[in-house]
Structure formats: C-alpha cells, structure tokens
Amino acid sequence: MSILIDDELCTGCGSCVNNCPYSAIELVNNKAKILPSCNLCGACVEPCPVEAITLKRGAQKAAKVDFSQFKGVWVITEHYKNIIHNVAFQLLGKGRELSDILGVDLTFVILGANFDNELDEISKYGMDKIIYVKSPILKHYYSDLYVKVLSELIIENKPEIILIGATPTGRDFAPRIAKKLNAGLTADCTGLAINPETMNLLQTRPTFGGNIMATIRNPNSRPQMATVRPGIFKEPQKVEKKVSVKKIDYAFEEKDSVSKIIKVINTSKTHVNLEDAKIIVAGGRGVGSKEKFKLIEELADVLGAELGGSRITVELNWLDPDRQIGQTGVTVSPKLYIACGISGAVQHIVGMENSDVIVAINKDPDAPIFHIAHYGIVGDLHEILPILIEEIKTINLNKE
Amino acid sequence: MKIFVCVKQVPGVSEIKIDPKTNTLVREGVESVINPNDRNAIELALTLKEKHGAEVLVLSMGPPQAEEILRESIAMGADKGFLLTDRAFAGADTLATSYTLSLAIKKILKESDPEEKYLVICGAQAIDGDTGQVPPELAEELGIPQIAYVLSIELNEDKIVAERKFRAVEIVVIETKLPALISVLNDINKPRYPSMAGILKAHDNSKITYYNAQDLNADEAKIGLNGSSTEVWKIFAPERKGNRVILRGTLEEIVQQLCQNLKDDKIL
Ligand SMILES: Cc1cc2nc3c(=O)[nH]c(=O)nc-3n(C[C@H](O)[C@H](O)[C@H](O)COP(=O)(O)OP(=O)(O)OC[C@H]3O[C@@H](n4cnc5c(N)ncnc54)[C@H](O)[C@@H]3O)c2cc1C
Ligand SMILES: Nc1ncnc2c1ncn2[C@@H]1O[C@H](COP(=O)(O)O)[C@@H](O)[C@H]1O
Question: Once rounded to an integer, what is the mean pLDDT over residues A67-76?
Fold first, then answer.
C-alpha cells in the first residue's frame, strides 16, 4: 500500500502539489516528492496531467465482494410524530433517477408504528417497493434497534445503493450499519451520479468547511452507502403506480434497547418551518440591532416569507436559534432568498446556496455573498428595505 | 473510571480553499489545530473528572506531528496522551480510523483493569472531513451504545443521561449505561485554556505513549488505505451559481429593477 510517482513521467508541473490538502508533496529537482505527512487520500492522482501518480493498495485488501449479487436502490427514512422527514421524499426523486439508469428497483424502507393508513399516500412518490417494519416501539427512534433491523434487512436483500438523510438521526445509525457491513459510507452528500463506465455511485460532498468539494466512490465494497443533505434534491412529482408493500412485524419491547428515551423537548418558541419556505428573508450582523430586525421582519411579512439569519444574529440574541441558517443551523432551498447584511461566510453559504434565486444587499462590494447572488445590491439595507417594502406592498395591492 | 477522548489534528479550515481560476488549493498560513469539537470533548472529560474522579486519556491517530495536539490536551488537564502513528495507518477512511482507535482503547483497558467502567468522548464532527462517522463506527467496533450530537450530560454511577439534538428544534433526552460513547457539539461547554502547570506537565515525555500497527496487533487488511472502503476520486472548487448582476442606479431604480427581475423569474 503506497503512493508512487513515476519520475520518468513526472514533468514537475506542480498540479499535485497544488491539489494536496495536506501540503504533503514537494518539488525536488523538478520532480514531485511525497512527504511523510501524506495521508494517501489520492486527491493528487486525477489532477496529474501525465498520469505519473498511482495509489497502490496492498494485496491484503479484504476479499472482493461479488458485486453481481447486489441489486437495487434503497431509501431509508426517519420520521417524527408519524411524519416522514422531507429528505426521504427528496431522496426518492434522486433514487428513481439512479435506479432507472441502473435498471433496478427503488425500495423505500420505513421503521415505524402507525403507517398502515399512510402507505397509499406514500406510494405516490415513485418507488417500486415499500418495506414497512412495524413495531409499537418504533414510534420513536432507537439507535440500536434501527441498526439491528436494518443490518439484517440489508444482509438478506443486498441492495447496491442505500441513501439516508444526513440528519442527526441518519448520521447516527448509518455509520453503525456501515461498520457492521464493512461498507463504504459517504457523509452529507450534495451530489449523486452513476459513473457510466463502472456503474459505481459517485458521491459528491463538501469538505473543509465547504471550501472544497470531493467526489467519493466505493469501488471495492457493497452496498454503497451515502447520507444526503436535506434540501438539495427536489421532491418528485407524485405518480399513480402499483407499489408492492412488504410488512414485517416485530415484537420489540423497550427493554430490547440499551437506551431509554426519557423525553423529547421542543426548544422552539414559535412554529418555524424554514425547510419548506418558498421565500426566506434573512438578516446578518449588518442589520445592526434587535430593534432594527423589525425592518427585516416587515419585509418578510409583506412577502409572506419566513424569517432567518446568520449565526451571529442568533448569538447576539436578535433571532431565535431555530431560525439559524447554515452549517450548524438548517439547510434551506427556497425559491427566493434575500440576504440582508450577511457577509457570506462559507458556513452560512452551505446552508442556502441551493436557493433558486438569491438576492444580496450589502454595503461592502467585496462581500463574498455577491459571488453566489443572482441579484446584488451594494448599499445600506436601512435605506433600501423601506423602499422595497413599499414597492412590494404596491405589487400586492395590484394583484388583488 | 477511565474517560477516553478522541482528538484529531485538522488544518485551520477557514483558510483552506480552492482558487476557482486555477482550480488549485490555496493554503496560505494554514496551521494545524485541535479539531474545535474535540476541545469541547476534552473540556467535558475534565469537568466529569473534577466531579466524579476519572483518568482522562486522550487518543489521536495521525502523523507524528499530531503529538502537538496531545501535548496541548495534557496542558489543558488530561492525564495521558496516546499517539497511534504508523505509515500503515495513512489513507484511512472512517472505517479504518474507528478500527484503529478501537484497538488502542481495548489494549489500554486490557493492560490496566478490563472490568473498569469507561466512557468515550468524541467531537461530533471534524472540520476537515466533516463526516461525524468515526464516533458511531467506533462505538459499533467496541460494541457499546452511543449517543451522538450531545448538548449536555449527567453521569450517575454507571448511568448517563444525555440531551441529544435530533431535529432543528427538538432535543431528545436519552439514558444509557456505561460503557458508552458520546459525541459532543460545541454548545455543550466552553473549553478552558491550558494552565501554567499544565503546560509544564505537557513537556513530560513519559505522559505520551506511541503505538504503531504492530503494537496494536492490527489486521493489515483493516487499517489505512487497505482498510478503507471509500476512495477520494477527485476534489474541485465549489461551483458558485450566482450570475452576479449588480443592480445600479438610484435607490428607487434599484428596487424597480429588482422587482421587475423577480417578476420575470415568476417569483413575485
Ligand atoms: C464550525 C462553525 C459553524 C458555523 N455555522 C454557521 C451556521 O450554521 N450559520 C451561519 O450563518 N454561520 C455559521 N458560522 C459562522 C459564520 O462563519 C459567520 O461568522 C457568520 O455567518 C457571519 O454572519 P454575518 O454574515 O451576519 O456577519 P458578518 O460576517 O459580520 O457580516 C456582516 C455583513 O453585513 C454588511 N453590512 C453591515 N452593515 C450594513 C448595512 N447597513 N447595510 C448593508 N450591509 C451591511 C457588512 O458589509 C458585512 O458583509 C459557523 C462558524 C463555524 C466556525
Ligand atoms: N484520526 C483520529 N484520531 C482520533 N480521533 C479521531 C480521528 N478521526 C476522528 N476522530 C474523532 O471522531 C470525531 C469525528 O470525526 P469525523 O468522523 O472525521 O468527522 C472527531 O471529532 C474525533 O473525536
């Protein structure tokens, strides 16, 4: 197992040096040289224009799995208060696309207690099969029970691709299953595609805080597992089709889990639904104060929009924590996102860059938010917003 | 009781980015630091130690220079550091990393008191790879329960009760028994700074133990690149979709243009 540079081929161009995230390649006498800090991540292999770099795996690599046994795409869902998480429907859209390319079935997996009456509605999201594992205790999420049931199902049915929402719950059970099955798992993906040559899943995800995108593949293991960030893919159009349902009853009891759920606390003061909002008006530090946030609220009001903000506005107590958008807050993808006084730090951008149209209002012409904005306004938000609010009121009146 | 804290050395991430023109990494002045969430993990271990008494053992798998972050952890107040370092560990994905970390924990337990109760604390996620997968995979490897994304924790004999973030606004309170693993978010506490006495202690070489693949009796097929199922195929700069139309004119003109554009886009 090692990384090799062919000195005969190497032209000393330095592409590998520039692509190494660990600063582990140096040019010595105009040839690339790997330093001990190399992490064998392989990021240098593709960029080399003369194919001088090879990453070699040892002969020890675990016995190759027979890929032909693995067929089908699975989407596994979570739910709360008997409502399926939106990301699962988004994944069914993407999952349909992938399974059509592969020519295989798309299966939706639910572990729950009370979905019997919902199955007809759920079956409109384009899957071919539903596996419904039913047990009263599965009303709640139990890490170990999910891991046990799902690992057994996967071993028995051998899907080739498994997609799970990258929520705190999905990211809790998916890694344990991956470990049990010794399967590659790619976290928090924002892009999924099939490589037409190998038919392998290509999984793209942000790393290094969103500054770098990486495409990951699992060439030697099956199933190929990925958790996928909510709000990235669109829900599919509903269709009427015949879906086969397999119901499996389990007689779990609370004592079958090593953990006990004591209670669920709702920390929100109001009902906020940023994930589904069509329009979001968000404020940042540039708004200036809690009082001045009223202006942002007013704009949200006339637009029928949800209110959001950057992390600093939550830290300063201008806004409730459930309205924070970004890496540590929610990810959103509305039709319109109006960013007022937000600089556009990557941690904020990763949470909103998938919005259809982004409007940025910022005093600083060099603010990074302008790089992703469709319409930028360089100016003071306190002067612009009142005029914008009046204009929208007029438009609203004309509509009536 | 033993508390194992897993810490990772990461590049100071806010600096690292790809130059969109040349498609190469820009790394000006990037230095390596303890992953931010892992500082919270150390802080939690130290608070639990102060309250309940425990030995705080910090583990890191990485290149030799990762020793720096172990010394920093000791300076904060940890008792000992363990550096798992070997060329054979390089290229590890989360599967291989969690396997290697689990071997060290098992070895340390076996060589002291195998019956002693223990808690493993990890950061919820590392800012470089940002997967958050090592903690649950490590728990699976150790065969112990885990609670991920923890916001607060109470320890009572061999029982832990933790608040875990599980949706945007919902927190679930979970109880489980030791041994267990938790991964913590940065809201859980405010990490302390190293003390003067701690800094002196950190220079004591006897506080750091080195393990290579042989020391851990590691299965070669399960470590480093060989033990990894995922493979980085390529890296590139994020595509920024904005078309950068900067609206100009008087305030009124700007607002007019914006509204017209939004109407054309069928939004207003
Ligand atoms: C691990 C980690 C996770 C994070 N997670 C998140 C997250 O989930 N969400 C998040 O948002 N952030 C997150 N952050 C923080 C993030 O990096 C930024 O610090 C934050 O988004 C900055 O908020 P801001 O743009 O409102 O403020 P600033 O960066 O201070 O920008 C304010 C902007 O307002 C402009 N401005 C000032 N006055 C006016 C005016 N009168 N009119 C117009 N413009 C004006 C200024 O030019 C400036 O560009 C995270 C950070 C870390 C390290
Ligand atoms: N090489 C490593 N050595 C020690 N701990 C690690 C290592 N990699 C990950 N961890 C732990 O796992 C957490 C999550 O990391 P990750 O899964 O890489 O996002 C980190 O915050 C650490 O606590």
Answer: 95
Q: How far is the CA of A366 from the centre of ligand 1 (A)?
A: 14
| Pairs of residues, one from chain A and one from chain B, whose beta carbons lie less than 8 Å apart | 311
Contacts of A353 in chain B (CB under 8 A): 240-241
Among B91, B135, B139, the residue with its CB nearest the CB of A41 is B91
Q: Are B257 and B247 in contact (CB under 8 A)?
A: yes
How do residues A32-59 score in pLDDT, each as one tens digit?
998 877 877 777 888 889 999 988 765 4
Residue in A closest to B98 by C-alpha: A179
Domains and CATH numbers, chain A: 2-61 (3.30.70.20), 67-254 (3.40.50.620), 274-399 (3.40.50.1220)
Check if B37 has its Cβ closer than 6 Å to any atom of ligand 2.
yes
Q: Distance (Å) from the C-alpha of residue B258 to the closest C-alpha of chain A?
A: 7
- Amino acid residing at B157: E
pLDDT single digits (tens) B135-168: 999 999 999 999 999 999 999 989 999 999 888 7
CB of B130 sitting under 6 A from ligand 2 = yes
pLDDT tens for B208-264 read 999 999 999 999 999 998 898 998 887 787 776 666 789 999 999 999 999 999 998
Nearest-angstrom CA–CA distance, B158 and B177: 6
Contacts of A264 (CB under 8 A, 6+ apart): B170, B171, B172, B173
Q: How far is the CA of A346 from the centre of ligand 1 (A)?
A: 9
Q: Which residues contact A140 (CB under 8 A, 6 or more apart)?
A: A261
Nearest CB neighbour to A357, from listed B139, B171, B265: B265
* Percent of chain A with pLDDT strictly greater than 90: 69
Angstrom distance (rounded) from CA B223 to CA B245? 50
In whole angstroms, give the CA distance from residue A182 to residue B94. 11
Is the Cβ–Cβ distance between B27 and B80 less than 8 Å? no
Residue-wise pLDDT for B79-98, tens only, equals 999 999 998 998 899 999 99
Q: What is the ipTM of this complex?
A: 0.84
Burial label, B110 (beta-carbon count in 10 A; 0-12, 13-18, 19+): exposed
Contact A375 B247 (CB under 8 A): yes
Check residue A60 and give its pLDDT.
44
Cβ pair A189, A228 in contact under 8 A: yes
Query: All domains of chain B, ordered by start, with CATH?
Result: 2-222 (3.40.50.620)
Which atom from ligand 2 is nearest to the alpha carbon of B5? 23
Q: Is there a cis peptide before residue A223, judged by omega within 30 degrees of 0?
A: yes
Interchain proximity A39–B91, CB inside 8 Å: yes
H helix runs in chain A, sequence order: 15-19, 86-102, 119-122, 143-157, 170-181, 293-303, 311-315, 346-349, 369-372, 381-399
List, as ranges, residues 82-141 from B with C-beta within 8 Å of A: 87-88, 90-91, 93-95, 98, 127-137, 139-141
**Residue with the larger pLDDT of the pair A212 and A135:** A135
Nearest-atom number in ligand 1 for the CA of B13 is 53
Find the mean pLDDT for residues B104-130: 93
- Cis bond leading into B179, ω under 30°? yes
Task: Render pLDDT for A103-137 as a digit per residue (tens, 0 to 9).
Answer: 999 999 999 999 999 999 999 999 999 999 999 99
Determine whether the interchain pair A261/B174 forms a contact, defined as Cβ–Cβ distance below 8 Å.
Answer: yes
